[in-house]
Write a structure and sequence with these properties.
12 strands, six-stranded parallel β-sheet, 16% strand, two-stranded parallel ribbon, 290 residues, alpha/beta, globular, Rossmann fold
Amino acid sequence: MVLMKVLLIGSKGMLGECFARHFRKVGIAFESPSKEMLDVSHNSALQSFVHNQSFTHIINCSGYTNVEMAEIEKERAELLNDKSMEFLGNVSQQFSIKIIHFSTDYVFDGKKTAPYLETDTTNPLNIYGKSKESGEKRLLKIAPNSLIIRTSWLFGLFKNHFIAKILHLMENKKEVQVVADQLGRPTFTKDLVEATMKLIDKSGIYHFANAGQTSWHGFAEGILKKAQKLGLPILCEKVEPVSSQAFETRAARPKYSVLSTEKYEKETLSSPRTWTESLEEYFESLYVNC
């Protein structure tokens, strides 16, 4: 059996930090270079770093993730989310390294009324989604043995995300307005890491998210309840549901981007826990067992 040696790209981000913690815990060898040491958007830099390193896997947690700014910084988003996939694909083929890459529910337009399957037609509504969709295709064309996991509404113990932002608002306002007409499935980084390891030998596209669909408003209500239960210094008393039109945005979002995890469940013989269970662990990890 060949032991894993992982090149972890984007190790300082929310998901990358979680992978690094997992690898240390279970004893998987990995390298996690900084952006200064390795810029994945430069082909020569990637080739040089990988040469003579004997990596078995590259887990790519890097990318351009600011949905709003992507509408302005289109070229930057396309470089990091699309063009860079060509470089990863080339390295995969040249050095026989398995690529694991993460994509998004925003490759869909939200016009379905049932959870999206991996085989459903993609039709992104914004630059971010288009760049991720194109990157998926580019990577699989060059390195078809790659694993791409689409996920949604990611939250974790590290860095900034929806929970951190909404808690900040709740600390300072009695009433917080949150969009109620966009539906999806929140995903805890810890659960995504564990799911990835179960899929590590698979190829193609898989969906993973925590079980149970909700709106951003429903997610925020769950956050408020947990915060109140723990006695956090929250001023907020109510989460007011509003439509997407209440907030002016550059990027259009799908109204329904619920991902089906049937394929994952069938092939791993396991089911994701609910987002409410994961949210409970999130708060316990930060405020109870810290």
